[in-house]
């Protein structure tokens, strides 16, 4: 494992930032907070994967940044839905243009799942779908030997589970709405 880390010092230095951001984005309680935090994660991981030579992962994160920002006004401005939906074909185009086999499959699948989740307004359903997307990123990160990616995946999966549990408990405490 140490030899993998030493083989790409610049990528893994950026990876330290990725781990910190990846561990904390699920902790945001609002949809807007989640999206801004994910935008920061996408910037860091786009750089990390580019430095690793995992170009589809890099492009998917760059597209994810654009999607996270495009998803911000979805709840309040219905006209932005079409703009957001227009970003979806870019996933397939990006995977095609940077094709690297299975890593491309799993990074584009991860972004597609995150894309669907970001379109939703219910944060609980959004978080649950993001858990599946994290598993797809985990497969990508194993294939491209991204130790920071795997660490961030494990931490974001754990914090996502914690926040789902917290949200479920909060929903039980609220009085039923008629």
Distance between the amino and carboxyl termini: 56 Å
SSE string:
HHHHHHHHH
Q: Can you summarize the main beta sheet?
A: none
Instruction: Note poorly predicted spans.
Output: none
Number of alpha- plus pi-helical segments: 9
In short:
This protein has helices spanning 2-7, 9-24, 31-52, 55-71, 80-86, 88-97, 102-119, 123-143, 147-173. It is mostly helical and 178 residues long.
How would you characterize the overall build of this protein?
With 178 residues, this protein is mainly α. The protein has one domain. 81% of the residues lie in helices and 0% in strands. It contains 9 helices and no strands. The longest helix is centred in the last third of the chain and has 27 residues. The radius of gyration is 16 Å and the shape is globular.
List keywords for this structure.
9 helices; mainly alpha; 178 residues
What topology does this entry show?
Layout: H1 2-7, H2 9-24, H3 31-52, H4 55-71, H5 80-86, H6 88-97, H7 102-119, H8 123-143, H9 147-173
Helix pairs in contact: 2-3, 2-9, 3-4, 4-6, 4-7, 6-7, 7-8, 8-9
